[in-house]
Amino acid sequence: MSIAATTPLWITHEACLRHDMGRGHPESPDRLAAIEDRLRACGTMDFFRRELAPLATHEQLLRVHGEAHLGAMLRGARVIDGDTIQTEETLEAALRAAGAVVHGVEQVMAGHASFAFCAVRPPGHHAERDRAMGFCFFNNAAVGAAHALAQGLERVAVIDFDVHYGNGTADIIRRDPRICMYSTYQDPLYPHWPGAKDAPNLIDAPLHARAGSESFRAAVTEHWLPAMERQQPQLIIVSAGFDAHERDPLADLRLTYDDYHWIGAVLRDVAAECCEGRVVATLEGGYDLHALARSVESFTHPFLGL
């Protein structure tokens, strides 16, 4: 095996910095800049091979989104809701963000990378089949999962530890038994997910405010891991949101850097046992810039052997 094949992959694009929903908006270009600055300063970026995110194709997007939703995105700038604004720069950024996950899936499935992290924005897990919302326009993780299935896989796991529930991912995959979604999230909190008892492929573990490390780790150990053992996924896609950190201004779950290192190590070990180590992570939330950057560092370290 070549050195390139074993090197973790960092996928990003400068277009993701140009999407800007306005001064003071928490989902800002500064998020990516903070992550890059931190990982360069601490040397973590030296372990990655960098590649540019391609544009997702219409075919790839239409596997998970309706034609009307794609058409609305293609028509250009609009205010979707008070938190979600499509500017002239949004479309390319959103296409690159979804395309990054597709590229990551292709690279790890081909054995060209041991792990892929998609440092992209806008995030995606609130985007439903027919609706943009919650800072999200296309559902990046779902696009990647659907692409993996189109390439011949039969079982995909989507992991979502963002503090806000990935309602868009659930909306898209809830009737597809080939994909299981494993979630921890603060409840009650936006988007006020009511649950779906009719969808056994949604493994939800809601946590109360101030739950902290012990409750988070217990949810993963008691709810996720037994279900993943039953599923035996052939690929793991991670909606990697870091807004459950104790410094984040938009929630109050109170996780720590050690928790993100721990969950990275757990997913690395599960992947090594069931799917040849294949993990693709894509950035979701995280709005305290210092905490976000250090949390990404902590999460990626186990995949780098650190």
TrEMBL record:
Stored InterPro entries: HDACs, His_deacetylse_dom, His_deacetylse_dom_sf, Ureohydrolase_dom_sf
Q: Which GO terms describe its molecular function?
A: histone deacetylase activity
Domain Histone deacetylase positions: 25-300
Matching entries from Pfam families are given as:
Hist_deacetyl
Q: Name one GO biological process term.
A: epigenetic regulation of gene expression
Domain of life the protein comes from: Bacteria
Q: Which PANTHER family match?
A: HISTONE DEACETYLASE HDAC1, HISTONE DEACETYLASE HDAC1-RELATED
Q: Give the family, as the similarity comment puts it.
A: Belongs to the histone deacetylase family.
Spell out the protein name for this chain.
Answer: Acetoin utilization deacetylase AcuC-like enzyme
